[in-house]
Structure formats: C-alpha cells, structure tokens
Specification:
With 162 residues, the protein is α+β, with helices and mostly antiparallel strands. Helices cover 44% and strands 25% of the residues. The protein has a three-stranded antiparallel β-sheet with strand order 1-3-2.
Length: 162
C-alpha cells in the first residue's frame, strides 16, 4: 500500500498508454479522454528522462555579490522594521523602519561579500537551474487500458507512440 501522502500520485497497476515528446501533447491526450467521458482519475502523466539545465546569466564579481546581499538585506531589514514599528512609540514608526532597512542593507552587503570570497573563485558566475523531462508518458490503470487505447485511436491529430 502506498504511503498516505503519495496516494494521489500513484496508480495500483499502471500500464503505459503512450509516450510523448512534449507535455502539451500528453496533456491533449488526457484532455481528449476526458472529453470522451473516460475516467481520467485513473490516468497520470509522468515526466521521464530527466535532465538538469543550468543557464549561465552573468559573471559574478564582488560588486554584484555586494549588491545582491544589500538588496536581500534591505528587504529583510524593512520586514523587521515593520514588525518592530508596530511596537514603536507614536511618531517614530518611520524612523524605526528606515533604521532597520539601513542596518539590513549593511549586514546584507557584508555577508554577500563574505559569501562570495569564501567560494575562492570556484564559481564566478550566476545562473538559474531547472530540471526538465525530455519525454512524457501517460499511464492508466490496467483495467482501463483497452478502453483508453480505443478512444485514443480515434483522436484527431494524434501524436503518440503506443
């Protein structure tokens, strides 16, 4: 029996209904089945052949590390200042927020520079990372496989490897 928190992400005896090169095609197939009043709660779309993509977006320098740290620090400082400002005496709310933002800016800048210097030049660039699937497989409960295959045979513009 599947763990309680994964019950929605499992099928009892899944069988492959087809594989697709992109998610939109897999989604169209399941949508078509739904339009044909097929019990789609017995289907799932699974991304397979995962790959990690890292897009380098720029060079990292001490100045950029300091700026990024300062921006993070100022937002954190504003947040803390707003919390402290709730308890500030009348008329000093704005100065409390402003002071906390300044302190946050300073600490963020220092920690940004320290963090960057600790890399020792091993990662002098910034990037964004994403895990993507290269294929998508539609699975269906074994007891519904024949009906799903029959319905998909009549799907207009069908793009599936059965």
């Amino acid at each position: 029996m599947a763990p309680k928190n994964n019950r929605l992400l499992t099928l009892e005896f899944p069988k492959s209904l087809g594989t697709y090169d992109d998610y939109a095609d897999a989604q169209k197939s399941v949508d078509y089945l739904s339009d044909q009043e097929f019990p789609v709660q017995n289907c799932m779309i699974v991304g397979t052949d995962l790959k990690r993509i890292e897009r380098v977006i720029g060079r990292l320098t001490y100045g950029k590390a300091a700026l990024a740290g300062a921006l993070t620090g100022i937002w954190f400082g504003i947040f803390i200042g707003l919390l402290l400002g709730i308890f500030a005496q009348e008329g000093s709310w704005f100065s409390t927020v402003l002071s906390a933002a300044g302190i946050g800016l300073l600490f963020g800048m220092v920690w940004g520079i320290i963090g960057y210097s600790m890399t020792g030049g091993r990662r002098d660039f910034t990037s964004v990372t994403q895990v993507v699937a290269t294929r998508y497989e539609v699975l269906v409960e074994h007891k519904h496989l024949a009906k799903a295959q029959e319905l998909l045979q009549s799907m207009p513009g069908r793009k599936v490897d059965l």
